[in-house]
Automatic annotation (TrEMBL):
PANTHER family: MERCURIC REDUCTASE. Keywords: Disulfide bond, FAD, Flavoprotein, NAD, NADP, Nucleotide-binding, Oxidoreductase, Redox-active center. GO terms for molecular function: flavin adenine dinucleotide binding; NAD(P)H dehydrogenase (quinone) activity; oxidoreductase activity, acting on a sulfur group of donors, NAD(P) as acceptor. It comes from Ensifer oleiphilus. Disulfide bonds join 44-49. Belongs to the class-I pyridine nucleotide-disulfide oxidoreductase family. The lineage of its organism: Bacteria, Pseudomonadati, Pseudomonadota, Alphaproteobacteria, Hyphomicrobiales. Gene3D superfamilies: 3.30.390.30, FAD/NAD(P)-binding domain. Binds 1 FAD per subunit. PROSITE patterns: PUA, PYRIDINE_REDOX_1. Its cofactor is FAD. Coiled coil: none annotated. Residues 8-322 form the FAD/NAD(P)-binding domain. This is FAD-dependent oxidoreductase. Residues 342-449 form the Pyridine nucleotide-disulphide oxidoreductase dimerisation domain.
Length: 474
């Protein structure tokens, strides 16, 4: 006989999105049930952001050793102890895991059920031997790696982000399918750690980013020895002589690529196949659960957030969504997702960070916009730190309104923070002109770009004659 529970909120999925809703609801004393079928913390903690950024940090140190010569130090080829690096990745995960654990959430007052959830009707979810009849449901079931339909792939072992961080040896030659954020970040990291790396991409690399900014990161990867084939189709994959072989074709003809290991980084698919969505009248498609800007589904009791909602797929979006849903469920206040205020970062080196409308999007939406740029070469800090390439682009609308900002630079993910605040608050260049930037920092290039916007003022005849007139006063 199933046990029936009737909480106010039932959250399905214990990743970044679901945990944020559960913690927020419990903090206000609202009865909440959280159902998780796998590891608490979801993709970000276990197979995504945390292990990938730990790997990238190690790779950055390896590259610093390799390129130390230009700072007057003795450079060498770094000796990589991959088993030790594997252990460090899992130490970092283990260090964060208690924050997301069943124990912590139980202590917060959340009832955690460790099983798979499935809707049985419009108002009921089944999980193990429980039936949950909640006033509201929040689907936060995330996404999984999409596996492309390439002939032969069924017969060849391959890695995804779910298995990559279990490797205890450095791949000799990593073949990467897909040059999105996952493919590019991992390609550069493994190259820096000493692997040969070849990336195959059907379209252009980092096609979601501003092409001018993306090209700076891609040039850096190529200079470091990553081989990248864009606009290339993989016709088949085979295994032979202990190698993985990709049969490829592009504008130059057909060719073979051989490697020791294959990583599939070809995008994501939502985890909703086993949720029984049709039984609950929840509309969905191949990208995710269909929601309005208030994140509510076609079943008005049910919301979908994070990767499951099929929009932007970032951990900070998961927590942004959680806040919007809590605002509606707890305080009965309206809330709408505004994608234009969400920053997007790819953690290549240089990093690519963007917020607001890109140049192309703004031209399409607003027509006449101005784009101001400053090259990182203008920054004294870039010179002291030996940073060779970088750029900031600010897209400016009428009356100097900041519509969007894109940065290619080391730590661009940090530099974008102040611009995210500016875009979210509809700020203008005049407001940025007035703040004092510390010297020497990379952030100063933003200020320099803004000053360049006002530079024509110095040549303006009216301004000049006003200054001449004011000289009369001594
Ligand atoms: C390699 C990689 C690197 C990334 N790096 C970054 C980064 O640096 N910064 C960033 O912002 N984003 C990054 N992301 C994206 C980020 O990981 C995701 O956007 C984020 O994890 C989404 O959180 P979520 O809670 O929506 O889903 P998930 O984290 O996927 O959590 C969903 C949870 O639901 C559970 N679940 C699914 N179905 C059921 C069911 N039927 N019943 C019960 N439980 C269920 C799953 O087990 C899972 O634990 C990265 C992703 C990858 C793959
Ligand atoms: N830094 C970050 O915040 C970060 C890092 C990694 C991932 N993520 C998130 O995870 C999501 C998934 O990232 P992703 O890189 O896996 O997906 P993606 O969809 O961004 O990129 C996948 C790439 O694979 C290519 N591709 C697909 N099938 C192919 C095939 N058969 N052959 C060759 N190329 C093929 C696509 O053209 C695309 O460029 C992103 O939307 C991103 O938001 C974020």
């Amino acid at each position: 006989m199933a046990k029936i529970i009737k909480p106010d909120i039932c959250v399905i999925g214990g990743g970044a999105a679901g945990l944020s809703v559960a913690a927020g609801a419990a903090a206000f004393g609202v009865p909440v049930v959280l159902i998780e079928r796998g590891l608490m913390g979801g993709d970000c903690l276990n197979h995504g952001c945390v292990p990938s950024k730990t790997l990238i940090a190690a790779a950055r140190h390896a590259q610093a050793i390799r390129t130390a010569g230009r700072f007057g130090l003795t450079a060498s080829e770094p000796a990589v102890d991959y088993e030790r690096l594997h252990a460090r990745i899992h130490e970092v995960i283990a260090g964060i895991a208690p924050h997301d654990s069943v124990e912590r959430f139980t202590d917060l007052g959340v009832e955690v059920l460790q099983s798979s959830a499935r809707f049985v009707d419009e108002n009921t979810v089944a999980a193990g031997d429980h039936l949950i009849r909640a006033r509201r449901f929040v689907i936060a079931t995330g996404s999984s790696p999409a596996i492309p339909d390439i002939p032969g792939l069924d017969n060849v072992p391959f890695l995804t982000n779910e298995t990559l961080f279990d490797l205890t040896r450095l791949p000799a030659h990593l073949l990467v399918v897909g040059a999105g954020p996952v493919g590019i970040e991992m390609a550069q990291a493994y190259r820096r750690l000493g692997a040969e790396v070849t990336v195959i991409e059907t379209r252009r690399a980092l096609s979601g980013a501003d092409p001018e900014l993306a090209s700076i990161a891609i040039a850096a990867l190529r200079a470091e020895g990553v081989v990248l084939h864009e606009a290339t189709t993989i016709l088949a994959v085979e295994q032979g002589g202990g190698k993985v072989v990709l049969r490829c074709k592009n504008g130059t003809g057909a060719f073979l690529v051989e490697g020791s290991d294959l990583l599939i980084a070809a995008g994501r698919r939502p985890n909703h196949a086993s949720l029984g969505l049709s039984a609950a009248g929840i509309d969905h498609n191949a990208k995710g659960i269909e929601v309005g800007s208030n994140l509510r589904s076609s079943n008005r009791r049910v919301y979908a957030i994070g990767d499951a909602a099929g929009g932007l797929q970032f951990t900070h979006v998961a927590s942004y969504h959680a806040r919007l849903v809590l605002q509606q469920l707890l305080f009965r206040l309206p809330a709408r997702e505004d994608r234009a205020i969400v920053p997007k970062v790819t953690y290549s080196d240089p990093e690519i960070a963007e917020v607001g409308w890109s140049e192309a999007e703004a031209r399409e939406k607003f027509g006449a916009v101005e784009v101001i740029r400053a090259d990182l070469a203008l920054s004294d800090r870039a010179r002291t730190d030996g940073v060779e390439a970088g750029l900031i682009k600010i897209v400016v609308g009428s009356r100097g309104r900041i519509l969007g900002v894109g940065i290619a630079a080391p730590s661009a993910g940090e530099l974008i923070n102040m611009w995210s605040l500016a875009v979210a608050n509809g700020m203008t260049l005049k407001q940025v002109r007035g703040y004092v930037a510390p010297y020497p920092t990379l952030s100063e290039i933003g200020k320099q770009a803004v000053i360049s916007y006002y530079a024509p003022l110095a040549k303006n005849a009216v301004v000049r004659s006003a200054i001449r007139a004011l000289r009369v006063f001594g």
